[in-house]
Amino acid sequence: MDDSFLWRRFHALEAATIFHVDLSRHASREAEAMEWLDGAERSRRNRFVHPRPGREFTLCRAALRSLLCRELGCSNYDLSFGTSEFGKPFARVNGVAATVAFNVSHSGRHGLIALASKGRVGVDVEERSSNRNLDVCIRLLFAPDEQAEFKNVSEQGKVERFYRIWTLKEALIKAVGAGLSIDTAKFEVPLAMVRGVKTGVFRFPDAPTVAWGLENIGNAAFAAAVAYEHGKMRDIR
């Protein structure tokens, strides 16, 4: 099947590659994407009450299947998915777990897919919105030193900084794959990255031997970040 309509390469790192999926309305593209889904996925897609989440699921899953088939050298028929203890999906080829890690995120008209051949990976994308009650979110979701970074910041600056921090935290949590068991207010992303530096290294306080590479990959259209496992007791700075 032709998959050129499904995704485009967005950003490349040494440890991972990120691809962009256009989630805007396009009837023929969605119909073609449906051809990539298996029976269970089509049933799941048909259970969505509203068209937007169904479209997002269809296009992201089709793009993921396309990318994994290319990366693993397998047919779409041989590709399936399993889930870890905390619900993070992984790929299987003919029933055997694949070595390629992946993560998917979507917001509004944008989907991002991260692939990594070694180690865990997480990605998050968010369309920025000034309609959220950011003051409440900052108080509940961020650590004290992160909250302090919002003092004397303009309203637009607050929006930019909030989504910068939030996507970094979400990418880390998704990379670990532990779901809601990690409290985002209990750890702090690198201060330099809070203030705008694009890359950094992070270690969770309760797992300091594992280094995570972090990169802010957002642009004018959306905020986004990727986190990737860099190994044990290795600092990339």
In short:
Helix content is 32%, strand content 29%. It is built from seven helices and eleven strands. A four-stranded antiparallel sheet has the order 1-2-7-6.
Descriptive report:
The protein contains 7 helices and 11 strands. With 237 residues, the chain is α+β, with helices and mostly antiparallel strands. It folds into 2 domains: 8-118, 4'-phosphopantetheinyl transferase domain (Ribosomal Protein L22, Chain A), CATH 3.90.470.20; 123-232, 4'-phosphopantetheinyl transferase domain (Ribosomal Protein L22, Chain A). The strands form 3 sheets. It has a 4-stranded antiparallel β-sheet with strand order 1-2-7-6. Strands 8-11-10-9 form a 4-stranded antiparallel β-sheet. Strand 10 and strand 11 (223-232) form a beta hairpin. It is globular. Mean pLDDT is 92; it is low at 233-237.
| Whole-number mean pLDDT | 92
**Cα distance spanning the termini:** 42 Å
Which structural class matches the secondary elements? alpha+beta
CATH homologous superfamily of the largest domain?
4'-phosphopantetheinyl transferase domain
- Percentage of residues in DSSP E strands: 25-35%
Count up the helices.
7
Number of domains: 2
Summarize the helix and strand pattern as letters. EEHHHEEEEEEHHHHEEE
- Helical content class: 25-40%
- Low-confidence runs of at least 5 consecutive residues: 233-237
Say how many strands there are.
11
Key descriptive features of the protein:
Ribosomal Protein L22, Chain A; 11 strands; four-stranded antiparallel sheet; single chain; alpha+beta; 2 domains; 7 helices; disordered C terminus; 237 residues
